[in-house]
Amino acid sequence: MDILLLIGGLILILIGANGLTDGAASIAKRFRIPSIVIGLTIVAFGTSAPELTVSISSALKGSADIAIGNVVGSNIFNTLMIVGCTALVAPIVITSNTLKKEIPLCILSSIVLLICANDVFLDGASRNVLNTTDGLLLLCFFAIFMGYTFAISSHPDSGSQPEEIRVLPVWRSTLYIIGGLAGLIFGGQWFVDGASNIARNLGVSESIIGLTLVAGGTSLPELATSVVAALKKNPEIAIGNVIGSNLFNIFFVLGCSASITPLGLNGITNFDLLTLVGSGMLLWLLGLFFGKRTITRIEGSILVLCYIAYTVILILNI
């Protein structure tokens, strides 16, 4: 049964990613909205819906390690594995604006989480906890991010509009987006349920489940959406989806979860949080200094290898 959930979830995710990308790109071209804005908002929020559902439900059930590990692991997976795999399929061109503003903002979100999650080191507390104050602070950062996103949406020329994008009727674009989101949400949930059941039957801890299987499962929509967007010659949606999802995960998903109930960090360590910060810095450096603002296939393979190394270290430390 768990294997069927995995396969069925994956099929739904792939179908949903294709529909969502077509609908979102069509709306972007029809209303002259920059593709990067679509990637940072509609696509990113939609593909982050599984993280939101899993983290909040885990927080309410007292499984803080799954709630936090899901976000931290998903963001590491997004930055290293998704960008890496997408670049292996088709090199990703990063715009100057994304390199100077969006990626540094993504790095900042990781640093903010690192600071909020280090009560023992910074304040001499008995344990590390993301409390209500931390949650509200993250939500304030989310409001700033949304303000920035709407600001760049007022400059249509800031994003490219590839001719390959097919303009669909508004009703069909809307149907594609809604249907795509539904496929992503339900497909992600099925995949996570199947993966989590298998992992628990093997006796793996909640923190490892959150950082790996749950994180990878809830990030499958981002992976599918980014690869499909890259194949359809719309790299701004691909990279915007990853960056938007990472920001959404930390500022909104964790912000909401910590505001609802304090989240104690037990199995989530500074190694995981520093890996999160380092992955964002690696992406920025690759885009800044190599390949003329293009994540090439070689650089994509480096990102994938870094994620594999991180996963191996986690498994060895079980």
UniProtKB/TrEMBL annotation:
Q: Please provide the Gene Ontology terms (biological process) for this protein.
A: intracellular calcium ion homeostasis
**Record-annotated Sodium/calcium exchanger membrane region domain positions:** 3-149, 173-315
Which superkingdom, per the lineage?
Answer: Bacteria
Regions crossing the membrane: 33-54, 75-96, 102-122, 134-153, 173-192, 247-265, 271-291, 298-316
What compartments host this protein? Membrane
Q: Which GO terms describe its cellular component?
A: plasma membrane
Q: What is its main location?
A: membrane
Keywords, A to Z, come to:
Membrane, Transmembrane, Transmembrane helix
Q: Which InterPro entries match?
A: K/Na/Ca-exchanger (IPR004481), NaCa_Exmemb (IPR004837), NCX_ion-bd_dom_sf (IPR044880)
Which terms does the record give in the GO molecular function aspect? calcium channel activity; calcium, potassium:sodium antiporter activity
Record-linked Pfam families: Na_Ca_ex
Report how it sits in the membrane: Multi-pass membrane protein
The protein depicted here goes by the name Calcium/sodium antiporter
The record lists the organism as Jilunia laotingensis
